[in-house]
Amino acid sequence: MSIFDTDLEQGAHNSVALTPLSLIARTAHVYPDAVAIRYGDQTTSWGETFDRCLRLADGLRRAGVGKNDTVAVLAPNTPAAVEVAFGVPGCGAVLNMINTRLDPEAVAFILDHGEAKVFMVDAGLAEVARAALAIASVKPLVIDIEDAQVGAVPGVGSQTYNGLIATGDASAGFTLPGDEWDAISLNYTSGTTGNPKGVVYHHRGAYLNALGNGLEWALPRHPVYLWTLPLFHCNGWCFPWTLAAYAGENICLRAPEGSAILDAIDRHSVTHMSGAPIVLNMVTTEAEGRGHHFAEPLRMTTAGAAPPAAVLARAAAIGFDVTHVYGLTEVYGPAAVCAWKPEWDALPAAEQSRIKARQGVNYAVLEEMSVRNPDTLALVPRDGVTMGEIMFRGNLVMKGYLKNAQASKQAFAGGHFHSGDLAVWHEDGYVEIKDRSKDIIISGGENISSIEVEGALYQHPAVGAAAVVAAPDEKWGETPWAFVELAAGAEVTALELIEHCRGLLAHFKCPRHVVFGELPKTSTGKIQKFELREVAREG
Amino acid sequence: MSIFDTDLEQGAHNSVALTPLSLIARTAHVYPDAVAIRYGDQTTSWGETFDRCLRLADGLRRAGVGKNDTVAVLAPNTPAAVEVAFGVPGCGAVLNMINTRLDPEAVAFILDHGEAKVFMVDAGLAEVARAALAIASVKPLVIDIEDAQVGAVPGVGSQTYNGLIATGDASAGFTLPGDEWDAISLNYTSGTTGNPKGVVYHHRGAYLNALGNGLEWALPRHPVYLWTLPLFHCNGWCFPWTLAAYAGENICLRAPEGSAILDAIDRHSVTHMSGAPIVLNMVTTEAEGRGHHFAEPLRMTTAGAAPPAAVLARAAAIGFDVTHVYGLTEVYGPAAVCAWKPEWDALPAAEQSRIKARQGVNYAVLEEMSVRNPDTLALVPRDGVTMGEIMFRGNLVMKGYLKNAQASKQAFAGGHFHSGDLAVWHEDGYVEIKDRSKDIIISGGENISSIEVEGALYQHPAVGAAAVVAAPDEKWGETPWAFVELAAGAEVTALELIEHCRGLLAHFKCPRHVVFGELPKTSTGKIQKFELREVAREG
C-alpha cells in the first residue's frame, strides 16, 4: 500500500458533497444585502431570499416531503420559480419544472410519470393545472403561487405558496445531499417519439454547470441577469445556481415580450441574458423602433438554431454581444460554447457570423464533446465535411431517463451520450451541426416533435398520409409545415386540419401551413422528407 | 427503493474524476495558439505546453515513474515549474515542490520523508541540491533543468529535463486519476515544532480551488498573470491550474525583484499577480522611483500579514487593486478572501484599509470557515471581540499529513481543520486574525518557526534561555528578534549568535536582532512572550 493511501482518509473535515445549495448559503453569508431578485416593483436581497428558501424547504418537510419526492412546479419566470431551485432540493426533494406551454394532457402525463407528490401552480396557470389534475392519476398536494401581477383568481390548491413558506423555520437548515450523485431535478424532454422522457439531474452536475456557466462567460461579480430564458428549460440552464455563486441579480419577467424586455434592460441596467434567437430578434426590433442603443454591451447567450447573420449584425449595432451555446436537456442545457477568439474580431461580419453559428467546443467542466460514427463510435476526421453524431462524456451528462432503463441504455451506448444531432468537425476542433437525426423542429426556442404532430394529423379521418417538417421562419427560427395526402374521396381544408390539431396539441406545435398533394416516397414507401424540406425552405 | 435510485447508475458516460489535467487538455484543444508561458524572450503556446506536459508525463512513465511515486522539484518560477504541475500528475505521480530558500539539511529531510523517486533541480540550485543529496538516504533519479538565463553550470543529475521530455510520446496521453481523491501533490509546511509536515493534496481539491480562484477574482478569459508568488508555495496557490482553466498567460520570472517585476508588468501588460505584501511594497517603491503609473488597474492578491494602510494607499495611487486573501498550506493556499463590497468604495482610505486587513470569508468552493472555541468547538459570537480559533471544513481541506496519522488526527479533531490562528468574528461574518496560536513569524511571505530558531540558539553554549518573537518590519512584514539570557559566566556577541544560527538555518530564518537580558517568566517558569513582543514592537 502506498504512503499516499495510508491514514489519509476522507471525512467530514475534508469532504462535502458538491451541491448548489452551498452556493446560496455562502452568498447569503457574504452579501446578505445584495439584490437577489427583482420583479416589478418588488426587490428581495440574498439574505431574504435565502431565508425564504430555507423556510420553503422546512415547510415542505413539515408537509411530509423529503428525499427523492417529486415537487412539480408550473410557473413562468417569477421569483417563486427562482426560489424553488433551492427550496425544493433543500428538503431533499426533486424539482420538476414543467413547460408552461404544454396542454393539460401533457402536464398530466408528466405529473403521473414523475409521481408528483406536490404540485405548485402559478396563479396565471390555474386553469391548465386544474384540467391536468382532472386527468392525472396522482393526487399531489397542490400549492397556489399567488402573484399580484395576476390578481386574485380562483386557486386550484389547498394552500398558498407564501402560506407554506410561513409554516417553515429557517433555522432547520437545508437537508444536504448525502451523496452528490443524488437527484436534484427532473426535466422532461419534448419527446420525439410520443411521450416525453424524464431527464434526471444530480447535485454534482448542477454544481459543476453552475460554475461552468460563469467560467465560459467569464462572469463578473454581481451580474444583472434578465430571465427571458424559461426557468423550466433545463432549470434555466442552471443559471439560478450560477447567479447564487456570483451573487447576481435575477430580473424576473412574467411575459418575455420585446417591449417589456427592453424596459427591464433599461430600468435595471441588465448586463447578461440568455434565450432563443427569437428573443434576440424581438428585442433588436423593438430597440430599432425606439432608436435605442445600450449604454454598455449586453452579453447574451443564445442556443437552438443559430441566429442569421443579418440578425446578428443588427443586434451588434444596438449593443448586443452574442455568444452561441449548444446543449440538450440531457446535458444540463448548454454544455458547449462557440468560444470566441480575439483574432476573429478583425474578420468581415459575414465571416464572423458563419464562425459564430457553429456549436463549438465542450464546456471546460465537461470532459468531452466529440463527433463520432454512430455505429462504430470512431471519431470522424476533423475535415469539416465528414458527418457524424455529436456525443458527450463527463460530469454534465444526466443520470439517465426516469423509469426508462431501455432509453437510458440506448442513449449511453458505448460510454457516450448520443445527442442525435449530426455534425461535422472542423479542423480547429469546433463542431457544427449539419442536420438533426431526430425529427425535431425548433420554434421560438421550443422543441416540437414532427412525429407528434404527424400523429395528431393522422387522427383526422380525411388524412391518408402526413409528413411534418421545419420551415425556416424569420421570427420563430422554424415553424412546422404539414404535407398531407388525402384519404381516398375525403375532403378537408387547411384551416380545419389546423383546428383539429389545436384540439390535440399545444398551439405552438400545430402546423403553420398545410400543403396538400401526393407525398414523395422511396421504392419501399418511406416518405422522403428531404424533398419536403426543400419545398418548405423555398416558402 | 426510490425511482430516483433505480437504473440511474454512474458510468463512464456521466462520471469522470475531477482533475486539473482536464483543464489543460480543454484549453489546448480550444486555444492551441494562445500564449501559455512567457520567460525572457521565450514564448510557448498552450498547444506546445500541453504537448510538452504530455511528453514529460510519458518520459517519466518510461523512466519507471507511476502512480503515487513522489517527484520532487527544486526550482524558481521558470517554465519547468509550471509544466511539472501537469506533467508530473499526468503520469499518476505526486508533485513535491520544495522551497528554494531551504538549506541542504531541510531539503534532504523532505526528499527522505517524501520518499522522492525523482528529483528535478534547476541549474541555479545545483549546489544546494548536491549538498542535500549527499545527506539524504534516498537515491532518486536526478534531472537537471537547464536554463539559458543561468548558463552552463555543472549539473547534479544523470539526465536533463529537456532530454527526459524528448523521450516521451505525447500520444500516450495522461494517466487520469481513477479516483479524484488520489494524491496530486505534496507540500511541506515550514514546521512549527521541528520537522516540517507533508501536506497531501488531492485532484478534487486542486480542481475545485483552480475554479475557486477564478470565481473569487472574477477572472476574465486570457488573464496575464505574473509569477511573483513562488510556485513552491501550495503549488502556487493552485494558479497553474486556474490559468489553464482560463487560458491565461504565465509570466515567469527567476528572481522577483522590484525592477524586474516592474519591467515584466510593462512589457507583457500584466493584469494579475499574487504575493506577499513585501512584493507589493517593492513594486510600489520601484514605480514611485520611476514616476510610473499603470495604464490599466493591476489586480493583486496578497496573503500573510495584511499590508499596512500607508502601503495600500501608495499602491492604489500607482494603479494596484489589492485583494486580501487568507489560507494555509493545509487548505490549498488561499481558501478565504476579504470579499470587497461596492458600498465600501466610498469609505475613507484608513477605514478601507482596516476593512481590507481582515481575513474575510470562505471561498465559495469551500464549505465553511468558522471561528470556534478550540476545546468545545462551539462557534464564538459574531461580536468582533470574542477570540476563537479559525477552522475550515470542506473540499479544500488537505487529505492529511503524510506518514503522520497523529498530527492529522489532531488537526482534524471534531471534524474541522484547526488552523492554529486565533481570530474574532465580526458581525458581518468576516473573520479577523488577532494572534497566532502557533509561534510563526511571517517574513517576506515565508513562515519562520520561532521554535526552530530558538532550537538553533540553544545549541550555542553561551545561551542559557532564548525566546524568538516577530518584530514588525516595513520591508519584510515581520522579522525574527531573539531575546537571550546568557548561561552563567558565558559571553557572546549578537553577531556571533547570528553567525552561529546561519550555520544551522536558512539565512532568512536567522534573528535580525538580538537583545540580551533576563527573560520575563511566569511563576511556573514559562517565558512571557507577549512582553517580548511589546519590546520588539517598540523597536
Report what the structure shows.
- The structure is a homodimer of 539-residue chains.
- With 539 residues, chain A is of the alpha/beta class.
- Chain A has 3 domains: 21-256, 3-Layer(aba) Sandwich (Rossmann fold); 364-436, Luciferase, domain 3 (Roll), CATH 2.30.38; 440-538, GMP Synthetase, Chain A, domain 3 (2-Layer Sandwich), CATH 3.30.300.
- Chain A has 17 helices and 26 strands.
- In chain A, helix 1 packs across helix 2 (46-62).
- The mean pLDDT of chain A is 93.
- At the A-B interface, helix 1, helix 7 and strand 16 of A face helix 1, helix 7 and strand 16 of B.
Question: How would you summarize this macromolecular structure in one to three sentences?
Answer:
The structure is a homodimer of 539-residue chains. Chain A is an alpha/beta fold and 539 residues long.
Side by side, the strands of the main sheet of chain A go 2-1-11-10-12-13-14-15-16
CATH class designation of the largest domain in chain A: Alpha Beta
The overall pLDDT average of chain A reads: 93
Q: Total number of helical segments of chain A?
A: 17
The domain count of chain A comes to 3
What's the total number of strands of chain A?
Answer: 26
Instruction: Find the structural class of chain A using helix and strand composition.
Output: alpha/beta
The span between the termini of chain A is 70 Å
**Proportion of residues in extended strands of chain A:** 25-35%
Q: What form of chain A results from the Cα inertia axes?
A: globular
Annotated CATH topology of the largest domain in chain A: Rossmann fold
Q: Supply the CATH architecture of the largest domain in chain A.
A: 3-Layer(aba) Sandwich
CATH homologous superfamily grouping of the largest domain in chain A: ANL, N-terminal domain
Uncertain segments of chain A: none
Oligomeric state, counting identical vs distinct chains: homodimer
Largest interface: A-B, 68 and 68 residues
